[in-house]
Amino acid sequence: MRPANRLTPFEPTHPTLQAPLETGLLTGQGEGERRIREAHGKPGPFGRVVKRLTSWCLDFLFPRVCLGCRTEGSFFCQACQSRLVYSAPRCPVCSKRNFTGILCGPCRERIGLRRFFAPFSYRTPVIRDLIRAYKFEGVRELAASFADMIAAYLAFYEIRLPASTIFVPIPLHRRRERERGFNQSSLLAKELALRFHCTIAPVLRRPRWNTPQTEMESYEARRKNVAGAFTVVDATAIRGRTAIIVDDVAASGATLGEAARLLRTHGAHTVWAITIAKS
């Protein structure tokens, strides 16, 4: 069995992870970014000049500062990165540790998930700051970094995704997404899909506005609050597939459970969940 470990001292075991991990985590210059650039084509000479000038102006006016030690240069420097420690896979309901990420029987019946993975604890101050900057301050560049960390975590615990895998992001209500400017779960799912050569299937919608889950104290209150919050718009995309729900943070598991229930009802073969952190 593998113990919890630091981010850097390991050899990736999943063949699709070799390229992004060779470039290092949290640099924003990995395989995922290269694929995005290729998909959109290479800019011409004028476009490259404009891009460099824009980047220089943004860095000058809004310098990137490490959220861990406050040094300039990146949102999360290599020194702070090296001090991060994994949280071993645990059941999101009862917290029982299982290095395969498979939920124990009673908890699996309770929330409908087969496996759950979250590399970090939300109680870790720097992780909490990174997620808040990503989610509430619009630092979208962190999506690629989080995807690299998740890929490295799954490689470390030798977790291989089934060939039928699709990534399903947790949706925001359109009002909240309009206020925030983007859906952090959708952006993360797109980065993960690039790294694992899988499909993203944004089949969930959130037509009903509900009170934020963070304002609910008990699991039962959160479960009732999110009950019926989602709908499925394309059941054919998930039928017979391994659907992996993607979200930024898992708390009680009520939101993941409601999404998992709906995906299974509409034909998903099995449902996993991946988040950046577990609170």
Please explain how this structure is put together.
The protein is of the alpha/beta class. Helices cover 39% and strands 12% of the residues. It is built from eleven helices and eight strands. Strands 1, 2, 3, 4, 7 and 8 form a six-stranded parallel β-sheet that branches. α2 crosses α9 (184-196).
Separate helix tally: 11
What's the overall geometry? Answer: globular
Element-level helix/strand string: HHHHHEEHHEHHEEHEEHE
Residue ranges: pLDDT <50 for 5 or more in a row? 3-41
| SS elements, strand count | 8
Q: How many angstroms separate the termini?
A: 24 Å
Q: Main beta sheet, described?
A: 6 strands, parallel
Helicity, in percent?
25-40%
The whole-angstrom Rg is 19 Å
Strand content: 5-15%
Mean pLDDT: 81
**SSE-based structural type:** alpha/beta
Can you summarize this structure?
With about 280 residues, this protein is α/β, with parallel strands linked by helices.
Question: Can you lay out the helices and strands and say which pair or pack?
Answer:
Layout: H1 18-22, H2 31-39, H3 45-61, H4 78-82, H5 105-111, E1 115-117, E2 120-121, H6 125-136, H7 142-156, E3 165-169, H8 174-180, H9 184-196, E4 199-200, E5 204-205, H10 219-226, E6 231-232, E7 242-250, H11 254-265, E8 270-278
Parallel strand pairs: 1-8, 2-8, 3-4, 3-7, 7-8
Antiparallel strand pairs: 5-6
